[in-house]
Structures are given as structure tokens and as C-alpha cells.
Write a structure and sequence with these properties.
Layout (H helix, E strand, L loop, with lengths): L4 H28 L2 H10 L2 H4 L3 H12 L12 H37 L3 H25 L3 H12 L13 H5 L2 H31 L1 H8 L1
Helix pairs in contact: 1-5, 1-6, 1-9, 2-4, 5-6, 6-9
Length: 218
């Protein structure tokens, strides 16, 4: 058991930070690789009228982002493919951060469980869930200025201007208009919110059932 109050607070804070990354990045991947979401959006927004092969293009793109085969050059032009290479790099980075976050959170909870330190476990879960919910609320409020957030995101994570597409030459804009990204952002927030609420609820349950659970673990 970690007896130093300072050490416990540091670990709880670190757990909360990694929990935010864990749930936000998980929500991004769950949303980004949901094939049904794309088909539903294309149908609801008449994308198939202009791009009858929209589903095939999206499938090719998703397989590429997952680390699969190369982009089909008949679906996207050279500029789009180069930008998607950058996007793939971001997904690779997010996968590494997601794995790191998951390992850290599991290690902390596993340690607390092994040591039967239920107060520490509940504090971590509550802090992680609460901080993630707070982060989601803040980002959601910021996204009310969606165009500004969209531009700042690309300026921050991309070192070139290839993400600035031309509707007359770049089909990716037809495939994924601004409304798609707004819809995807909402799904990410809802998914991350549900996951973090689950963590918060678990922490509260452990906290209020501490005595009974301690007897079970003994």
C-alpha cells in the first residue's frame, strides 16, 4: 500500500490524465472505424448520388488507416493521398498513446486490487471519470465554434497545408463534408462520455461498498 499522501495524489493525478487519453482516443477509434456510420451518413446526405462508390472509397481509406493496403489511386488524387499519409501517421501515434494509457491505467488498478487498497482504487476511478467528463464538456463547448476548432486542429497536428482541399478537384470533400466531421465529433463525445461515466460510477460503487468489498477480497 502506498502510504505517502503526496505519492498517492501524484499517482491519482497521473491516472486521471491517462484515463482522459484512454477514453478520448478509444472513442476516436470506435467512431472512426465504424463502417455503419459511414454508410448511414452517405445515404442520409445523398453522397451516393455524386459518388456511387462512396462506400468502397471509405472502406479503402479505413483499411489504409488501420495499416492495411495502400490507398487506391483511382479513388483519391496525389494531394489527397499525401494528406492521408499524414492522417495515417496520426492514427499510428494515437494507437501508441492508447496502448500506453491502457497499460498505465491497468497497472495502477491492478496494483490497488492486489494490495486491497480500495480507497486508492476508488479515488483513481472517480478522478479519471470526472476529469474525462470535464474535458469532454470543455471540448464540446469549444466545438460550438466548429470551424475555428477544425482549423486550429489541423494547424497544430499537420506541418503542411495539404488539408486545405479544393471542392472542384478533391473528392474527399464530397465524401467527408463539414457535416460529417460535426456528426463524428458528437459521436466521439457521446462515446467518451459513456465510457468515462462508467469509470466514475465504478469508482463511486467501490467507494460506498468499500467495507463489503474488502471482506470479499480478504
Amino acid at each position: 500500500m502506498i502510504k505517502s499522501r503526496k505519492s498517492r495524489m501524484v499517482l491519482i493525478a497521473l491516472f486521471a490524465i491517462f484515463a482522459v487519453m484512454l477514453y478520448l482516443l478509444s472513442a476516436v477509434r470506435i467512431t472512426a472505424f465504424d463502417g455503419n456510420m459511414y454508410a448511414g451518413f452517405f445515404k442520409a446526405n445523398d453522397i451516393y448520388k455524386e459518388l456511387p462508390d462512396a462506400s468502397e472509397r471509405a472502406e479503402n481509406l479505413l483499411n489504409y488507416l488501420k495499416g492495411g493496403r495502400e490507398i487506391n489511386a483511382s479513388y483519391f488524387n496525389e494531394k489527397e493521398i499525401t494528406h492521408l499519409q499524414d492522417v495515417r501517421g496520426l492514427f499510428s501515434l494515437s494507437s501508441a498513446l492508447l496502448f500506453l494509457s491502457m497499460i498505465f491505467c491497468l497497472a495502477i488498478i491492478g496494483y490497488a486490487f492486489f494490495k486491497k487498497d480500495l480507497p486508492f482504487m476508488s479515488a483513481c476511478l472517480i478522478a479519471g471519470g470526472a476529469l474525462t467528463l470535464a474535458a469532454i464538456i470543455i471540448v464540446s463547448l469549444m466545438s460550438l465554434r466548429f470551424e475555428w476548432i477544425f482549423v486550429k486542429f489541423h494547424e497544430l497536428f499537420f506541418t503542411n497545408s495539404l488539408w486545405l482541399m479544393n471542392p472542384s478537384t478533391d473528392k474527399i470533400i464530397t465524401l467527408f463534408p463539414e457535416s460529417f466531421f460535426k456528426m463524428a465529433a458528437k459521436r466521439i463525445f457521446l462515446t467518451a462520455g459513456a465510457l468515462s461515466f462508467g469509470m466514475l460510477a465504478a469508482g463511486l460503487i467501490v467507494k460506498y461498498m468499500e467495507k463489503k468489498l474488502k471482506n470479499v477480497l480478504q
